[in-house]
Amino acid sequence: MDYEQFNEFCKALPATTYVMQWNNSHVWKVGGKVFAIGGWGPDDQPACIFKASNQNYDFLKDAPGYRPAPYFASRGMKWIQCTDTQLDTEELKYYLVQSHKIVSLGLTKKKQAELGLNQ
């Protein structure tokens, strides 16, 4: 998945906003909270970072093409970096949807209702 595909997919998720920040990374938010970042790949190769459930984090942290996200994981956060653009796009989309859901569920009930999420 290249950055154009990444951005198009994240844009299609409900109540998302986009900003370019942190060294020209593609940052996607739901309710003002980050759920996915495109950027920070080794040797300037495409990579994306997403929040993972405990179970998905444990599964992915040692899986080929994935690793605990630099900076986030060192602070005890369950974020994964996908560094292999040849991985199954449908698999990556699944994890991006899950990240969006995890982050949206962390919003207040009022904010979720305002954004039409998790109804």
Automatic annotation (TrEMBL):
Query: SUPFAM superfamilies of this UniProt entry?
Result: YjbR-like
InterPro entries, A to Z: YjbR, YjbR-like_sf, YjbR/MT2646/Rv2570-like
* Positions of transmembrane segments: none
Q: Which organism is it from?
A: Vibrio fortis
What is the recorded name of this protein? MmcQ/YjbR family DNA-binding protein
> Domain of life here?
Bacteria
